[in-house]
Amino acid sequence: MFSGETVASCHLLLNISRLLKDYVHKWRELKPVPGISPTYPFLGNTLNFKSNGRDFFCQVVGYTKEFWNSPLFKLWIGPVPFLILYHAETIETVLSNPVHMDKAYAYKFLHPWLGTGLLTSTGDKWRHRRKMLTPTFHFSILTEFLEVMNEQAEVLIEKLEKQAGKGPLNCFNHITLCALDIICETAMGKKIYAQSNHDSEYVRSVYRMSDIITRRQRMPWYWPDFVYNYFGEGREHNRSLKILHSFTESVINERAEYITYVESDSESDQGMRKRRAFLDMLLKTADEDGKKLTHKDIQEEVDTFMFEGHDTTAAAMNWAIHLLGSHPEVQKKAQQELFEVFGESERPINTEDLKKLRYLECVIKESLRLFPSVPFFARTICEDTQISGYKIPKGANVIVITYALHRDPRFFPDPEEFRPERFLPENCVGRHPYAFIPFSAGLRNCIGQRFAIMEEKVVLAFILRYFNIVACQKREELRPLGELVLRPEQGIWITLERRKH
């Protein structure tokens, strides 16, 4: 008989042997693909890269320029190979292929927080969940959230009003807290008053967790859980995780009890009914067999909405504010459009108004082109494939550098120039469908993109109706941090002047 230690040792050796075999196979298969050097066994190109978000991002973008005439290039983070894509044609071959639907290895570090919800799930679970959730993002349902967006935008205006005419202010946190209030109330039906109480434990944990995950993704030595949990950062991750999960869990239980009460008491006072939230729809949604989501399933999706739905939208609005403040002629044109729709009225924004704000939508899209909220995202190659003549083995990871893709002069002449007119319908004719993908593309595109555009239109429209914006920073001073979300290193500094109607 073999001892337990012998069996465990055999298992360990077998696993190491498999990993080595897989590593050597990928190394050989990817040898013809152009790549950066030096590359070291098992460490890959890790030593080439800086550990902080800004420098790492600048390095990757720099390599896309160096390899611009190649369809792709490779880099190794530890023993894991990544193929870097930045041309619309090569990106389309991956994103349009239903085989390569799985998110890349780095997304596993989101699992402790988000579980395997819509962002991180794969295969049949993703297809099943996407099919169930798509109806909850129908335009007719999204319009119900306009009231929340209007209310929170009004709170933002009140806060900005106190600082108008008083010199430079960093608007980044103001906008971010507004977005957090909007997503909390629309996703969970819960008011957290982030704009009034930005020191709340939940708000701090949302921010902290995003930073912690980003750092771990860049540091292969932190990838094994037993190593990560030994260090202070791993323990801080677990503390933040506990706060985030306990909050959403309590909200789900509270909302479920409320729905049960309302359904059992049909004569209850209709005036006391709460606004509908995504959470309500998740609690009621069932598949073709009538099977409902469990509370664990719902928590995965609520946490995903919270993660994806505030930081990305907030960043997009902040970049747009900087660009508007740097281009007074564009700002004036957007304000003229708003005057044509609203006149001097201070009324809330409705769905018909949103349809008329076509130029403002062009401003938002051009801002997303220059500063995509998600500057890169990744997929796993799920079977051996060919990309631009190169054989790519199953298990390799692909990173789409949206930031570089959106600067392709073939589709966007003078790509560093801010020109919202690029997105007028007549100027989009003939443009490659994968040349502009701020919400990804293909089957796994962002389910919440219409919600995001609606929110951005409402908040920016409110700001432009009340204030003139003047940017205090030049573009080169913004120093974008390419983390999970593209953010300016020192915030967005502006001055606000009250408008005279």
TrEMBL record:
Keywords assigned: Endoplasmic reticulum, Heme, Iron, Membrane, Metal-binding, Monooxygenase, Oxidoreductase
What are the annotated GO cellular component locations?
endoplasmic reticulum membrane
> Which compartment or compartments is the protein found in?
Endoplasmic reticulum membrane
Query: Source organism lineage?
Result: Eukaryota, Metazoa, Chordata, Craniata, Vertebrata
Reported function = Catalyzes the formation of aromatic C18 estrogens from C19 androgens.
Q: What is this protein called?
A: Cytochrome P450 4V2
The reactions it catalyses are: (4Z,7Z,10Z,13Z,16Z,19Z)-docosahexaenoate + reduced [NADPH--hemoprotein reductase] + O2 = 22-hydroxy-(4Z,7Z,10Z,13Z,16Z,19Z)-docosahexaenoate + oxidized [NADPH--hemoprotein reductase] + H2O + H(+); testosterone + 3 reduced [NADPH--hemoprotein reductase] + 3 O2 = 17beta-estradiol + formate + 3 oxidized [NADPH--hemoprotein reductase] + 4 H2O + 4 H(+); tetradecanoate + reduced [NADPH--hemoprotein reductase] + O2 = 14-hydroxytetradecanoate + oxidized [NADPH--hemoprotein reductase] + H2O + H(+); (5Z,8Z,11Z,14Z,17Z)-eicosapentaenoate + reduced [NADPH--hemoprotein reductase] + O2 = 20-hydroxy-(5Z,8Z,11Z,14Z,17Z)-eicosapentaenoate + oxidized [NADPH--hemoprotein reductase] + H2O + H(+)
Q: Where does heme bind?
A: C446
Q: In which pathway does it act?
A: Lipid metabolism; fatty acid metabolism
Family in the record: Belongs to the cytochrome P450 family.
**Cofactor(s) named in the record:** heme
The record's GO molecular-function terms, alphabetically, read: aromatase activity; heme binding; iron ion binding; long-chain fatty acid omega-hydroxylase activity
User: Which Pfam family is an annotated match for this chain, by its short name?
Assistant: p450
Enzyme class per UniProt: oxidoreductase
Transferase found in the keyword field: no
- Location (main, coarse): endoplasmic reticulum
